[in-house]
Specification:
Elements lengths: L8 H32 L2 H10 L3 H29 L5 H18 L5 H18 L7 H8 L8 H8 L3 E3 L21 E5 L10 E7 L2 E8 L13 E7 L2 E7 L5 E6 L4 E9 L2 E11 L5 E8 L5 E5 L2 E3 L6 E5 L6 E5 L10 H10 L1 H7 L7
Parallel strand pairs: 7-13
Antiparallel strand pairs: 1-2, 2-3, 3-4, 5-6, 6-7, 8-9, 9-10, 10-11, 11-12, 13-14
Helix pairs in contact: 1-3, 1-4, 3-5, 4-5
């Protein structure tokens, strides 16, 4: 059965308020024009004209105002749907429709009930029909994404999301399904895109698995999402003798430490935003003999990550300590399984850990014991 997504009440109120503001301005304009016409005419002639028409003039004005309101309400809804696919969010559509049904009922006071119901039903039908208009590839993509239900297997998700572009990690060149089956992923998250064109480059579907079953599916991009900026790391770096270290720690539990002998220069920077489900920390270092290496950490939740050094991927679950050297004229990486849960993001704690670890002690040398 199709599962309708929803958005927060805050977004509902904001969008209804925006639409209401547009209508209110239009209603004020019409009301001002009507009042000026009434005030500008001869009262006696107005009364006689009204008597001859049986009071039809006020009813006609109400119809004009209602038609104006109806057009604006539908126009605003079309624009919002084109920009953010709001027609598939049932809570928003229900709130939007209720708002305008109430406004319409007030404007149609004095109208026969059957006509009032007919007009309002037509209006609701037009709102509902918008959800079947696919302005571009985004709306069907979001619909399919929200068909993914909690508890589904990877095979079931593939049957739904198979027509779309799948990526194991962002951003890389588009991969063919199955070509990277042995590649590590960011925990158990799979990313989908509905287009490879630039206008949709920041729109993603994220499906999270645990033990081979779906636990969450969400859309990130122009539509509404509850996702906040992915968690960033507390970073500490420094030098000891002819070596340098970098330590990254997330409050969610992830911790990574790297020691290297590229001491000429080094730098790093982290980035994250609500438009991108991945937090990235990129860095590089250069040795005295001119060699250079780059590295990057990517994480979605601050608990699991991928660590890349010069294009080679490492899974921190296999070891959170890395020692990088320039021995024999090439970059060599050793990945060691160490518990970093007790290490804090400050020099004192990092040095204390290094002094207690024989591999780091041997790599750094005597400078580690200097006061």
């Amino acid at each position: 059965m199709f599962s309708f997504p929803s958005i927060g009440l805050a977004e509902v109120f904001i969008l209804v308020g925006c639409a209401g503001g547009v209508l209110l301005i239009g209603a004020i304009v019409v009301a001002v024009i009507v009042m000026r016409e009434k005030q500008g005419g001869d009262p006696l002639n107005e009364a006689r004209a009204s008597e001859k028409r049986g009071g039809a003039m006020p009813t006609r004005l109400r119809y004009i105002l209602f038609a104006f309101a109806l057009l604006i309400a539908l126009g605003v809804f079309f624009v919002l749907d084109f920009v953010a696919d709001v027609s598939i969010y049932v809570r928003f559509v229900a709130a939007y429709a209720a708002f305008w049904v109430l406004a319409g009922a007030l404007l149609l006071q004095g109208t026969a009930l059957r006509y009032k119901l007919l007009i309002l039903v037509v209006f609701l039908a037009m709102l509902w029909a918008v959800r079947f208009i696919d302005w571009n590839s985004r709306k069907p993509f979001v619909k399919d994404l929200y068909r993914v239900q909690e508890g589904m297997t990877e095979a079931q998700v593939e049957r739904i999301m198979g027509p779309y572009i799948e990526e194991a990690i962002l951003p890389v060149s588009l991969s063919n399904k199955g070509d990277e089956a042995d590649e590590p992923t960011l925990g158990s998250k799979v990313f989908y895109r509905h287009t490879d064109k630039s206008w949709g480059s920041s729109e993603w579907g994220v499906v999270t698995f645990e033990d081979g079953r779906v636990v969450q599916a969400e859309f990130i991009g122009a539509g509404f999402s509850s996702r906040s900026t992915p968690p960033g790391a507390n970073v500490a770096g420094g030098g000891v003798g002819q070596t340098s270290y970098v330590f990254l720690r997330w409050k969610e539990g992830l911790a990574l430490m790297m020691w290297h002998d590229f001491v000429k220069s080094s730098a790093g920077k982290g980035t994250g935003s609500t438009a991108d489900p991945i937090y990235r920390y990129r860095g590089h270092a250069e040795s005295l003999n001119g060699r250079r290496f780059g590295w990057e950490v990517q994480t979605v939740d601050g608990r699991v990550a991928l660590f890349t050094i010069d294009g080679t991927r490492y899974d921190p679950a296999d070891g959170a300590l890395f020692i990088v050297t320039t021995e024999n004229g090439k970059t060599e990486v050793r990945q060691l399984d160490r518990d970093l849960s007790g290490v804090q993001s400050d020099r004192e704690s990092i040095i204390a850990f290094a002094r207690g670890d024989p591999d780091v002690t041997r790599f750094v040398g005597e400078a580690l014991n200097a006061p």
